[in-house]
Amino acid sequence: MSDYLLEMHDITKDFNGVKAIDGIHLQVRRGECVGLCGENGAGKSTLMKVLSAVYPYGTWSGQILWEGKELKARNIRETEEAGIVIIHQELMMVPHLTVAENIFLGSEPRNKAGFIDYDLMNAQAEKLMARLKMSDINVALPVYNYSGGKQQLVEIAKALNKNAKLLILDEPTSALTTSETRTLLDLIKEFKANGMACVYISHKLDEVAEIADTVTVIRDGTHIGTQPMAELDTNKIITMMVGREMKNLFPREAHTIGEVVFEAKNISCWDVTNRERKVVDNVSFELRKGEILGVAGLVGAGRTELACKLFGCWNGDHEGKIFLEGKEISVRAPRDAVRLGICMVPEDRKRHGIVPLMGVGYNITMSVLKRYTSGGFIQSEAELAEIQNQIIRMKVKTAEPLLPIASLSGGNQQKAVVAKMLLPEPKVLILDEPTRGIDVGAKYEIYKLIFELAKQGVAVLMISSEMPEVLGISDRVLVMGEGKLRGNFVNEGLTQEKVLAAAIGQPITEAA
């Protein structure tokens, strides 16, 4: 009997002659967690889609051994029946079905008459959620009632229901709160202790360091190395991932902060579904030319709602005034904001940032399509030239410019969304979680771009849940909590403890 539950040997997969992965090896023992690391576009998700038969046998070359026998799966159902379950970075929920229906989708328990036994299904779903320490979830409610973090844990429940022997988690904590992340990591440790194997894909290397027994790194579709985590640290993993040592993840550059260019006064927003609840409560602030203003706060603080109001895309009731270059402006819709010089990179790129089946390049130029239109016709050559320029500028990895953007990695999709919002040459750029779900190398490039924009005089409002990121690149930090502005700090000697204290409503003694 093999020592390994899973062995992948010399796996190669290409798309239209372009190799996405080339000769990759991966081995996983029972009860082991393997951290799979690499930059966006390195081939991690492609490798896992080969393993889970999203790309069926025959569409790739190499060999997969499962429990010592060759696996030639033709679809996901076959790999799940074998005990291989993947939880994708993008959630696979059916929003209007209940939590229980999502967990049991395709394997619903039935009574003697052949009908779905909802009582039994709900009872079993409750047991699964209790195991995940999520007893507060009502399994009979539609899953859209719950946050992305809780939906991620519902995905874990689905995997448990399928009796997974190998659980593949692709960026599982990108939408989780700190407490939800803690719950998930503790669960993985419990799974390991019970003999379940895991492949853990994450750009959060502190998480990889905590739970992985072994780390495999791939770069540009090739296998760079596999080592025990005990022989590594996060800096060594980064060096393997990007091919160079990165001593400073936040490339601060000197830039001049000028006069006030943007001002929000007494901004309030009400919950879309509950007119009695304020999600943004009387927030006012100024933003200066060339300034990088970070916005920190815990989940539910109202940061994204504030950004949506400023960009004209908040669907609920709202009030307050916005001033640009000293003049009051009316922003009723995103097109108004873009026309005035206010652009925004949204938090959820899948829902609000891209048109999935449209080409990468057309996603980039759609914000300035009028530039390439004459007499009712699009000037294709000029548009394609701009597309090529932006792909090179943002280092977007794509086999060709008009490939559907949905086929790109999350990080490369994000680069394209940023490029789209830079083309209108904004005076104010709002970035809502700009580095969520992207690798350390891509983060570094986005940070460099933010400083480049600041040096050009663009005012940047950056919302981030990653405290080191906020403190690493901001000139000043706004702290929000429960919809209110609880702190406004110059970023000189500012600590995570001080920001967190403000976020949870402890007395603020230093303000600017």
List keywords for this structure.
512 residues; alpha/beta; Rossmann fold; 6-stranded mixed sheet; 32% helix; globular; disordered C terminus
Layout: helices, strands, pairs:
Elements lengths: L5 E10 L2 E11 L4 E5 L6 H8 L9 E6 L2 E2 L5 H7 L1 E4 L11 H5 L14 H14 L16 H14 L4 E5 L7 H16 L3 E5 L3 H7 L2 E6 L2 E7 L5 H9 L17 E11 L7 E11 L3 E6 L5 H9 L6 E7 L2 E3 L4 H7 L1 E4 L3 H5 L6 H6 L7 E2 L2 E2 L1 H15 L15 H13 L5 E5 L7 H16 L3 E5 L3 H7 L2 E6 L2 E7 L5 H8 L9
Parallel strand pairs: 3-8, 3-9, 6-7, 7-8, 13-20, 13-21, 16-19, 19-20
Antiparallel strand pairs: 1-2, 1-4, 4-5, 9-10, 11-12, 11-14, 14-15, 17-18, 21-22
Plain-language structure description:
By secondary structure, this protein is of the alpha/beta class. The protein folds into three domains: 6-242, P-loop containing nucleotide triphosphate hydrolases (Rossmann fold); 256-341 and 426-512, Rossmann fold; 355-424, no CATH class. Helix content is 32%, strand content 25%. It has 17 helices and 22 strands. The chain has helices spanning 44-51, 76-82, 99-103, 118-131, 148-161, 178-193, 205-211, 234-242, 303-311, 334-340, 349-353, 360-365, 380-394, 410-422, 440-455, 467-473, 496-503, and strands at 6-15, 18-28, 33-37, 61-66, 69-70, 84-87, 166-170, 197-201, 214-219, 222-228, 260-270, 278-288, 292-297, 318-324, 327-329, 342-345, 373-374, 377-378, 428-432, 459-463, 476-481, 484-490. The strands form five sheets. Strands 6-7-8-3-9-10 form a six-stranded mixed beta sheet, sandwiched between helices. Strands 16-19-20-13-21-22 form a six-stranded mixed beta sheet, sandwiched between helices. A four-stranded antiparallel beta sheet has the order 2-1-4-5, covered by helices on one side. Helix 15 (440-455) links the parallel strand 19 and strand 20 (459-463). Residues 508-512 have low confidence and may be disordered. It is a peripheral membrane protein. It comes from Pleomorphomonas diazotrophica. Belongs to the ABC transporter superfamily. Keywords: ATP-binding, Cell inner membrane, Cell membrane, Membrane, Nucleotide-binding, Repeat, Sugar transport, Translocase, Transport. InterPro entries: AAA+_ATPase (IPR003593), ABC_carbohydrate_import_ATPase (IPR050107), ABC_transporter-like_ATP-bd (IPR003439), ABC_transporter-like_CS (IPR017871), ABC_transptr_XylG (IPR013455), P-loop_NTPase (IPR027417).
